[in-house]
Target: CENP-V/GFA domain-containing protein
Amino acid sequence: MDLGSATSLSMQCTCGAFKARLERPRNALRVVCYCRDCQSYSHYLTTYAPLKLDQHGGTEVIALAPEHLKLEQGAEQLRCISLSAQGTYRWYTHCCGSAIAVTPRQARLAHVSIAASALRDAGVDVEAAFGPLQVVANRASAHGNALPRPTKQSLFILLYGMGLLLQRSTGRWRENALLQPGTWQPIVPVHVIERTQRQRLLALAEHRPHTRSRIVLRW
Ligand SMILES: [Zn+2]
Ligand SMILES: [Zn+2]
Model:
């Protein structure tokens, strides 16, 4: 969506050691994803912190172009894992296990999913900043019923996709604080988790109901 006059939003990890901001976050998409990978990732982070999934096992993210993400403090706290050799890059902080972002392996795909929890940890009213939920992804693997049904989801995805193409053709995908200029590899080593650990996390994601989650999203 076009956020008009919005210029900068703060984000941080829960303990505050890591800080960043989203500058002029236009063409952003407010998404909840119920996929098993996002659920597995949340279980992975429980090594550090309580489980952060909504009551249906969802993870809320703000999808936007990486050029809007500016790191400010505590970048040395960033860690990056992947659930498989082909999986997306999942960024979190070592200090307190806060999910920060998910990025694709293809650098030219100018896309980053920012954890909405990192915006809320900095006091941002996500609903006020980005409006109603626009996309519900992978609803088949949600737990329970009564999922939100945003209107015009396909239209929002189409508009976002057009923005990605523009970033690619203009070369602005290179403005990505999470990649090293030149090599376009992540700024920290990527740890691909062991297959057995992935299976354990997947079992948790599939079988553990999230009814006691402390995260309740407002649509
Ligand atoms: Zn922290
Ligand atoms: Zn997902």
Residues 54 and 217 are 6 Å apart (CA to CA). The chain has one domain: 8-204.
